[in-house]
Amino acid sequence: MTLFDDDSYEFHEMDNKDRCFRCGYPSGRFFVLRQVKSMKMVHLCEDCLLNSRSDYYLDNTRPWSSKRRPPK
Is 20 part of any domain? Predict the structure, then answer.
């Protein structure tokens, strides 16, 4: 598994990395979370994250966002 490769994580079939999974808004910044119902990764905007936090959780198997990548 490559931590910085989105192909290594199972995303929900209806997820689009350019739009919020819940509201469909094309936000400039998304949070990648695991949906409790499907156990698959999704992209959420800040508002949907705050309004539906019981339906999603942070998945600590994903790396935290950072401009710096670990050395190879």
Answer: yes
* Residue 62 within a domain: no
Other C-beta atoms lying within 10 Å of the C-beta of residue 20: 21
Tokens of 67: 């401009």
pTM attached to this predicted model: 0.73
Kindly report, residue by residue over 6-62, the tens digit of the pLDDT. Answer: 666 789 999 999 999 999 999 888 999 999 999 999 999 999 999 998 999 887 766
Look at residue 31 and tell me if it is in a domain: yes
- 72 within a domain of the structure (yes/no): no
Tell me how far apart the alpha carbons of residues 32 and 20 are, in angstroms, rounded to a whole number: 10
